[in-house]
Amino acid sequence: MSEQDPLVIFTPSGKRGRVAPGTKVLDAARALGVDLDSVCGMRGICSKCQVAPGVGEFSKHGVTVSPDALSPINAVEERYDRVRGLKPGRRLGCQAQVLSDVVIDVPPESQVHKQVVRKRAEVRDIVLSPTVSLSYVEVAEPDMHHPSSDAERLLDALKAQTGHDDLDFDRALLPSLQKTLRAGKWLVTAAIHDDGAPVVVALWPGFYEGKLHGLAVDLGSTTIAGHLVQLDTGEVLASSGLMNPQIRFGEDLMSRVSYAMLNEGGATEMTAVVREGIGRLVDELIEEAGIERGSLLDATFVMNPVMHHLFLGLDPYELGQAPFALAVGSAQSCKANDLGLDIAPGTRAYVLPLIAGHVGADAAAVALSEAPHRSDDLALVVDVGTNAEIMLGDKTGVLACSSPTGPAFEGAQISAGQRAAPGAIERVQIDPTTKEPRFRVIGVDLWSDETGFETAVAATGITGICGSGIIEAVAEMRMAGIVDPTGLIGSADQTGTPRCILDGRTHSYVLWENGDRQITVTNGDIRAIQMAKAALYAGARLLMDKRGVDSVNRVVLAGAFGAHISPKHAMVLGMIPDCPLEKVTSAGNAAGTGARIALLNREARREIEGLVRKIEKIETAVEPRFQEHFVAATAMPNAADPFPLLRGVVTLPEVDFNTGGDGAGGGRRRRRRG
Amino acid sequence: MSEQDPLVIFTPSGKRGRVAPGTKVLDAARALGVDLDSVCGMRGICSKCQVAPGVGEFSKHGVTVSPDALSPINAVEERYDRVRGLKPGRRLGCQAQVLSDVVIDVPPESQVHKQVVRKRAEVRDIVLSPTVSLSYVEVAEPDMHHPSSDAERLLDALKAQTGHDDLDFDRALLPSLQKTLRAGKWLVTAAIHDDGAPVVVALWPGFYEGKLHGLAVDLGSTTIAGHLVQLDTGEVLASSGLMNPQIRFGEDLMSRVSYAMLNEGGATEMTAVVREGIGRLVDELIEEAGIERGSLLDATFVMNPVMHHLFLGLDPYELGQAPFALAVGSAQSCKANDLGLDIAPGTRAYVLPLIAGHVGADAAAVALSEAPHRSDDLALVVDVGTNAEIMLGDKTGVLACSSPTGPAFEGAQISAGQRAAPGAIERVQIDPTTKEPRFRVIGVDLWSDETGFETAVAATGITGICGSGIIEAVAEMRMAGIVDPTGLIGSADQTGTPRCILDGRTHSYVLWENGDRQITVTNGDIRAIQMAKAALYAGARLLMDKRGVDSVNRVVLAGAFGAHISPKHAMVLGMIPDCPLEKVTSAGNAAGTGARIALLNREARREIEGLVRKIEKIETAVEPRFQEHFVAATAMPNAADPFPLLRGVVTLPEVDFNTGGDGAGGGRRRRRRG
């Protein structure tokens, strides 16, 4: 282009260049690598390419734009404006021609690769780059003199418009192909899935006015959560969850593995029920969002290794025993049909890769969401559940392991434990002087010592303690000197409160009582929490050893449960390594977020596939130091690590309730603290 | 390699080169590009690489081979010989090392790309290069310190041994993967299908001793014929056929298309029954051949366009009307499961490409078998059936069309017509002087005027005339002056034989009578044959026009029916263009042969895919000259083309039985002969 040719400047990208006079804005954008959408092959129908040209002095860009810098509104644009309406000042990029220097703004809705801004400052935004896109084309009519099939002519038209020379056609669409082409009078809209090998996955007669949708599923052992997402905005249109119907074969994963081992066809049966369950979830989501089923064309799935194998129709037998060999662990890119899901004939599915025999695609999704591999500082990311998946890393490398925390954090194995549901004690405070507790219950906004609590709680009653409640209770007991660092609850005499009652050979702390009903924290409860948190900490500590560090810069707690844990209380227990409390953040359902990222951004799939290969996997079961870390971590916060930052903000009374007779061994551990 | 290194000469290829002393024979073969098989990864188990080294003076090759040119028989070879036996003089190429100059013969059974010699001189042999091959590998055991899935380690082992870097694993094998690996103690045999994208399609624990098999199916409108083939030899182990169960929806294709149009779900119903039928055929073939079902890993299919669409689950509606648009016509490479066939979990299927809306994959298969595109002289290839598929071409190009001959050649529309079955008249001779006929009947070796015929025919009776019989009868009547060139049968007076009897307004010729039972050739029969043969000839003539020729060098008659047609009689009728009679040959079931070639040689698939694109397709329905050729071709042999070569060997009396009253129009046509 010569200096005489008009200069085009696109905002917000700032990309600029000269084009021949008469060049269409869309062509100019493509030539300059500007992200401007288009579906209809420059026919002025889709309006995806609409732009907002500026007029006047643009000193920042050093140009003055005349009112006739673009060609006058033409008949196609007039018709579009009349029939569908165009915002004031907007032009169709496929119609407007550049005549002289011009500044053209590409509004967000005209960009293919829009950014979805996430609320949390520490994580990156999601760039929209979904696997499915639309293309509206005119297909050549059949000609007896040059016989070729309808599929061939459709592909020719799509290849010419999209540039996908290797485009293929999903066999499942063939039965409806000829009717669709004729219903559209040889004008059709194709949905093209492109995740390596582009393929036509849906077809509508004429111009398809609707949106494309995708599904992100977090397939947990207990619950299956699904989000239905609009692919061009990233917006979640509907979210729903259901209990994993496999629960009837066993509450936890190992009992399901046993079921498969002990019952001929048991694995097949569990595969069938979980697929049925997801099918129901899909139906619900489609109905709730009010979308056309045929527009739901992509789905991503994350889950732990056992659920992965059961979902894929594989017997999880080998995952029940060392060496925990996966049948397959790489990312699965296939049709939803291949996974027993009947969504639309062409719907695609992507199952994120597993990291190792104990570290699943859910952990991979957490990595995608929390991106430890992109972190400047050293981050510890913990997904707390029945198994804790733990990752430690930064830009220079990431380590991962899994640690068998057991279900104590979810309220199981706790005498008054229950799932997080209305009536459950979820927060606890204990006065260090009076040793008197106050608490909050799920479903009630007041603390138990506030006026009106009794009335407010009447609807649900006080039914038990959930996971976050027991963590706060034990941590508060530790800070109030009711339980000693080894985990022994003192007697009423030792602690000075009648709430400590003798309960068999040990003591319990009465959190609440009403008539003959009582909710207590028993010494058994403390032991269960100690085991769980020691496993979690030992896993983290093992990764720190491997990495050669004694501390981490920040801690991210992922998982629905992680969202409810108080960082201070978790650290008092010694669940997580010592670090500044404000550096402990919650990532919420990071696995679900990761599934959404993989749905919305196909490059993220390659990223996680690459990361999974590079992550250094540590198998806690065969690491000799794990046991040592575990033993030290049974103490609260820890018998080996000093937790100086924690001790700077909380007081941890160094009480000792071991009278030498009950063999709790606290004395020995305390000595090692030195 | 230096001149000091030993020289290795392989026979029969004659490939030669120097290798470092100690090089294994198999490695030497690979380095020199010699076709030497190997399955077991040089473990001395499969014996596929066995060779026969020579000793002594080889003046032809200019070397003298010492008895110790190869390393002594080693322990692996000794064990193989002891356990399984090795032919005298044979060595295992993966064990024997080259020490000095040597001549090594590769026996046919050790070659991957063996040639299957075909009986007919005019066609090429089939080179074996099947899509499926075996590979025996040792897979690394799982290691908790380096977690990776069983699938990944299996693929790693196979990639290393086969060099297929892009090898994939069929999802359908995943459920049995872990058990198979452990049953084989980490030694397994994999079957790899490679037709562009290599994929593991079957897996056996340990070394698989069996053979691999394939299926070639010719899916006709009337019958479905299948051949079960051993892939490493090309040998047909079992052949079977069944009536196409779709016949209950309509005898001919157009009535099936109508059924689909008139009945909701009719196409789906027809798809289901034909797939079921093929399923039964597969079961029969497996049982007859006595092979393991899991070894049947590839299948090829040929058929006409309507059967193609119905088999693929597509409504043939558009094929019932101009412009005869195919939904899809390109070769289909997929899983047998995708076509509703449950053979083995990994079995592949390949459907040959269609040529045009009327010219099917069966014609493509005929092209593969008869190879007009490789012919030095100009060949006309005709596949005779309800539709005739016609190809004309040589190395410089091929044209193709289809012509609607109707079912007359199959005995339908003929008054005494019947399918070719015992009791049917199949050959006819008429004495030109006495006008007396003699004939032969299917199931009897004697002619009707030979002693013992009456007794021999008693078992079946004389039940009617089959397709080849009616062609001979009409041609003999023409040569005996009983029917004139326009197709009019003369009266007893005109012909001088009382066998010509009045039959309504026209005459019939009594071929046989016994008491009150009679088999006659009516003038209506002659008309039906004239219409059918005129369509066939007009199609051929149209291709000759397009090619700009008046004659062809040779004619190939394909199809089961083509195998029974007498070239002379066909030419007397003017079914096929004039050419030396010895240049008219029968190709038998060339479509079935083409399906077998595509099964046995994967390069043939690329060849036919390329040829189908290059073939010039002629649509007879829209060619103005077709009608003109058709009218001229209703005369016998032809009202426009002189057939000089034919007239040089047979006498065709120029009788004329048109008395001006019956409007047969023969007079006008005769004048054009002028």
From TrEMBL, chains A, B:
Protein name: DUF4445 domain-containing protein
Database matches in PANTHER family: IRON-SULFUR CLUSTER PROTEIN, IRON-SULFUR CLUSTER-BINDING PROTEIN-RELATED
Pfam families registered for this protein in UniProt: RACo_C_ter, RACo_linker, Raco_middle
Matching InterPro entries: 2Fe-2S_ferredoxin-type (IPR001041), Corrinoid_activation_enz (IPR052911), Raco-like_middle (IPR041414), RACo_C (IPR027980), RACo_linker (IPR040506)
Domain 2Fe-2S ferredoxin-type: 6-110
Organism in which the protein naturally occurs: Maritimibacter dapengensis
